[in-house]
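Posting for a labmate who doesn't have an account.
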Amino acid sequence: MVGFGGWEMPLAYQGGTLAEHAACRNATAMFDVSHLGTVRVEGAGAFAALQSAFTNDLRKISPGRAQYTHLLDDDGSVLDDIIVWWTADEVFDVMPNASNTDRVVSAIGGHDTTPTRAVIAVQGPGCRRVVADVSSQAATVGRFAVARVEIMGVPCTVAGTGYTGEDGVEIAVPSSGAAEIWDALASAGATPAGLGARDTLRLEAALPLHGRELGEGITPLQAGLSWVVAWDKGVFRGRDALMAERLRGPHRLLRGLRIDGRRPARDGNHVLSGGRSSGTVTSGNFSPTLGHCIALAFLAPHTRMGDPVEVDVRGTLLPAEVCATPFVRKSRGSGSA
């Protein structure tokens, strides 16, 4: 167990991170992600409050759907990346990162319901079969859909979202029923997995981590997430600064690196091109699926796929190659309903 965002979280269970990672890629794993926040925003002004605060356009979706979006600072950098669950007419559950709930409440209002529920993420190509053993209704919630369902007599909210690059659902369950549903999912075949596997999985899928690929001084354009910005929806915080960057072009871009061997690059390691500094690693690790190391790094915008670079890891220069992301694509499985 380790401290994480003010929570005590499992780093790994008895089987270890590699086994948990493999379970998610090849079968089914489940993660306790109750550290994620939930801010309930509801009422006549809820839609307008979210629409003016976040970068994405809620008009693209409707009740019963989820959307990935950003909350920006005035300079265009990402204060938080967020999933919005539009659960019913004029009712939204906004899901910020662990340490950012108070910041999000200040920006959009609403009330923090995090202490009242747990969130279980069931992920992997076999997840639908496992979830169906516990709730056939929950198993049919498709990708980025949201539904209120009853699981084992407990009212839950289920969304077709996750952070592993695999098919899956996230189940928000009242705290009083969480342990019973967790045990039922384990009995149905889900392998409990911790933060270690969650990080290696999200890195293989090239999904950004707040504080690494997103955060102070990092804009959606630099992170390759311009699709999260709805330029024509109207005013939102940080839009003017982001538009100015769009016109002049970002001074750096997030890229993938392939590194042979098992010695990983780490956050803050310098990337060299032709012996000169070209950027900085944000996340790096050994990829259990690929059998070699991978990393994400902010590099000069002229960098191209296939370019050879070096990563300075404590004075040792590791040969690397700029490569496309995601490093690992979604496994073939039962798919979403």
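Reply:
Got it, the structure tokens are right above this. Helices lie at 17-26, 46-53, 101-108, 127-134, 136-139, 175-188, 195-204, 239-248.
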